[in-house]
Amino acid sequence: MNDAFVMNAWAKAQGVDKVKVIPDGSGEFTRKMGMLVAKDNLGFGMRSWRYGAVVTDGIVEQWFEEEGFSDNCETDPYGASSPQNILENLKASKAKAA
Question: Which stretches of the chain score pLDDT less than 50?
Fold first, then answer.
């Protein structure tokens, strides 16, 4: 849920040019995805729950959501939506297709 300035600066600093970054400063996209949660207990207010998706031509092909989805979750899980996990799943999918 970062704004366009943050997302574009991050992408440029990382040399990202084949991945579309999606700014969401107001949380509108996150809300419509059903992933907006309160994180007031961590001092953040409304934020996006951690998730990742593989999207091709507007179709969600794979979904990676952290466990425990809830407002004011006691923990801040990170693993299922990590880039490493998503990459491993993409490699496995490619190997199955071959």
Answer: none
